[in-house]
C-alpha cells in the first residue's frame, strides 16, 4: 500500500492541474463546439485542396460579406429555440424592417443636403426599423403567452400576416432609393475585413454575454429545460417569453440593416431560402430543438462551416437548388444524430 501512495498523489495532482488549465476553454468551447472547430478546419483544408483559389483574398472577402446577415437571422432563430420555441417569422420581419427603413428615407428630403443631415436621416430610419422589428417580435411573444398556442403556429401566422401586408403595401415590387452614404458605410471594410462581418461578430459577442452571464439568459435555458419548474422558481415565464421574441425581432432588424446595404433595396420576397439554413445553423451549432441548451460560439462556428460549404459548392458549380436540398438532408441527419445521442445517454 505504501508503494501506491506516491503514485496516486502524483496522478491526482497532474489531473487537477490539467483540468484547471482546460476549464476556461471548456466553458467557452464545450465538447460539441470543439468538434465543430475540428470539422470546420477539416472542411477548410479539404476545399483548399479541391478548389483552386478557395482561400484567395477575393473568396474570403466574399464569404465575410455573405455570412453576417444570415448569421444574425440564425441568432434570431436560435434564441427562441433555446426556450423550446421557434420563430418562423424572422425572414418576414427582417424584410418588413427593411421596407420600413427605405420608406422612411424615401419620405425625407435628402437631395442637396450634406453628409451630416443624410446621416441623421439614416439614424431616424434605423430607429423606425428597430421599433418595428422589436414590436413585431414582442407581439409574437405576447400572442404565444396569451393564447397558449404552440410557437410554430403563432409564428407561422405572424409570418403570413407580415409578409402578406408587405406585399400588399408594396404591390410585390422592389423598393429602392437608399442614399449613397448608406451603401458606402454598409459595404466599407477595415483592413480588408468588411464592417458587416465585424458588426456580426460584435452583435454575436453581446448576445453571448447576455445568454451566459445574465439572469435573462439563464431564464431562457431554464424555460427550455422545464417551463413548469421555472414558473415555480418565481421566474415570470410569460414576461421572459415576450422578451425572447422581442429580442429575436430586434436581431431581425439588425439583419435587415445589412441586407439593405448588400441589395441596395428592400423587398418582401428577399432571403426566403434563408429560413431552412437558420434552423440548420442553430441545430448544427448545438442548440437543442427541444430547448434548454445552446451557445453562441457553437452557432458562429456552424455559420462559418456552412459558409465554407456553400462557397465550396458554388466554386465547384453546384446549383443553388441542389445546395438547398443538401441542407435539408444535413438538417435531418443532424437532428437524427442528436436524438440517437440523447437515447444512448
From TrEMBL:
Where does it sit, as one GO cellular component term?
Answer: plasma membrane
Mind telling me which CDD domains this protein's record contains?
Answer: TM_PBP1_transp_AraH_like
How the protein sits in the membrane? Multi-pass membrane protein
Q: Does the keyword Transmembrane apply?
A: yes
Q: Name one Pfam family in it.
A: BPD_transp_2
Q: Which residues cross the membrane?
A: 38-58, 70-94, 114-145, 152-170, 190-211, 244-263, 269-287, 299-318, 324-341
Q: Which UniProt keywords apply?
A: Cell inner membrane, Cell membrane, Membrane, Transmembrane, Transmembrane helix, Transport
Where is the major localization of this protein? membrane
* GO MF annotation, one: transmembrane transporter activity
- InterPro entries the record matches: ABC_transp_permease
List the subcellular locations: Cell membrane
Leader peptide range in chain numbering: none
What is the designated name of this protein?
A: ABC transporter permease
Q: Give the species this sequence originates from.
A: Asaia bogorensis NBRC 16594
Upper lineage ranks? Bacteria, Pseudomonadati, Pseudomonadota, Alphaproteobacteria, Acetobacterales
